[in-house]
Write a structure and sequence with these properties.
Blueprint (H helix, E strand, L loop, with lengths): L2 H13 L9 H15 L7 E8 L5 E8 L7 E7 L9 H15 L2 E5 L9 H18 L5 E11 L1 H15 L7 E5 L21 H11 L24 E6 L5 H13 L4 E6 L14 H15 L21 H14 L2 H18 L5 H22 L3 H9 L1
Parallel strand pairs: 3-4, 3-5, 5-6, 6-7, 7-8
Antiparallel strand pairs: 1-2, 2-4
Length: 397
């Protein structure tokens, strides 16, 4: 792994930063905001506004739209789904990446605030993504972009949703997609393609199990609508630009999806950045490769070819933006959260709470302990019925 990644992981361990497996989803969301705010390279310029993306059926999803510093006629439009294992991440953590992508590529970028687990199943996260993509397609002209140059993109869980959306809109009307950008995507939610030995800092097997505990419990993981690697066919999908980190447990997953797309005759550019950990693109303030990856992605976006023909547009009412007062309040709040003063205070508060909290059983360990307790109860039951030898074997196990 990149020495910078090892240093970051060692520093977090040194100061006693809580491991994600000990955190609730609410706590982990705050932790992720702090991580992104302190490791992401800032960019200036451009403009953003917030609104609600809605479907003709009335389904609504909050989105934030970014325009580049230099606007041009016929600009591409990118719909971005943030990462976070379907549990963490939000518009704030995706802000810098979306702003840079807009500025580097001169594209309009729509960031999607989809619903997260465990509050909702991930099938509803995918529904939100599809709603936002179809909305961006219908409103592209109002947003100053060319609907024929629509790209869906995302990192990690967002890459999963982007890939699944391409399969969906290939088979259903609603949007014509010109390209897909998948950054260390999880396309096989059975995790059969995951490398459990990859050196990925704080994003290890236990952390992945924590995300699965909160987002994949009770889910049919081979369902192709959420695991696009299991799609019946990968033919006829948009050109793909796949970005992978060599030290990322999901690197083999991304390679497998790239091979599946290529085998089906699709155009694929698969870039692998050696020794890079999961999340390195968002943390471009630490990892120069993250900045290089964003520049490469921006070149792909800027050069995307229009989809010939496409689905006819459906007339929509004008976009109703959030009020200027609401936007100003949001910008002030987020600007404050990015300052060293605010982040230092949040870090110290978290560390103090962690020190006073004392040891606590993580959800993953609690689940394991519950299983062991069940085995012990079975052993006692067998002992009471005279099966002493079997009971002893179970108890020792």
């Amino acid at each position: 792994m990149d020495p910078r990644g090892r240093t970051l992981a060692a520093w977090l361990d040194l100061v006693g930063w809580p491991n994600i497996v000990t955190r609730t989803p609410e706590q982990a969301r705050i932790d992720y905001q702090i991580l992104v705010a302190t490791t992401t390279r800032r960019t200036i310029g451009g403009w953003s506004r917030s609104t609600i993306a809605s479907s003709p059926e009335g389904h609504e999803v909050p989105v934030r739209v970014y325009w580049p510093r230099r606007r041009r006629i016929g600009a591409p439009i990118v719909v971005w789904m943030h990462g976070g294992g379907f549990v963490i991440g939000d518009l704030f953590t995706a802000d810098a990446t979306c702003r840079k992508l807009a500025n580097y590529s001169s594209a309009v970028v729509v960031s999607v605030d989809y619903r997260r687990s465990p509050e909702v199943p991930i099938t509803q996260s995918h529904e939100d993504a599809r709603t936002a993509i179809a909305w961006a397609y219908r409103h592209a002209a109002q947003l100053g972009a060319d609907r024929r140059r629509l790209i869906v993109a995302g990192d990690s869980a967002g890459g999963n949703m982007a890939a699944a959306a391409c399969c969906h809109f290939r088979d259903h009307a609603g949007a014509g997609i010109a390209g897909q950008i998948l950054i260390y995507p999880a396309t096989d939610l059975t995790l059969a393609h995951m490398d459990h030995t990859a050196a990925s800092g704080f994003f290890d097997g236990a952390a992945i199990e924590w995300f699965g505990l909160h987002s994949l419990t009770g889910i049919e993981r081979t369902d192709p609508t959420i695991s696009p690697l299991f799609a019946d066919s990968h033919a006829g999908l948009p050109p793909a630009h796949i970005v992978l980190g060599g030290a990322d447990p999901f690197c083999p997953d991304g390679r497998a999806y790239a091979r599946a797309l290529e085998a089906a005759g699709n155009q694929v550019l698969c870039e692998e950045f050696p020794r890079q950990m999961h999340g390195f693109v968002d943390m471009d303030g630490i990892f120069p490769s993250g900045h290089s990856a964003l520049k490469s992605i921006a070149e792909t976006v800027a050069g995307v070819s229009p989809v010939p023909g496409g689905v006819p547009t459906v007339p929509d009412h004008p976009i109703r933006w959030y009020s200027l007062a609401a936007e100003t309040e949001r910008r002030l709040d987020e600007s404050w959260l990015r300052t060293p003063m605010a982040n230092t205070a949040r870090i110290l508060s978290t560390l103090a709470a962690e020190r006073w909290r004392g040891p606590r059983i993580s959800p993953v360990r609690a689940l394991t302990r519950s299983t062991q307790s069940k085995k012990h109860r079975l052993a006692l039951d067998e002992t009471s019925t005279g099966h002493t030898t079997d009971a002893t074997a179970v108890t020792n196990d």
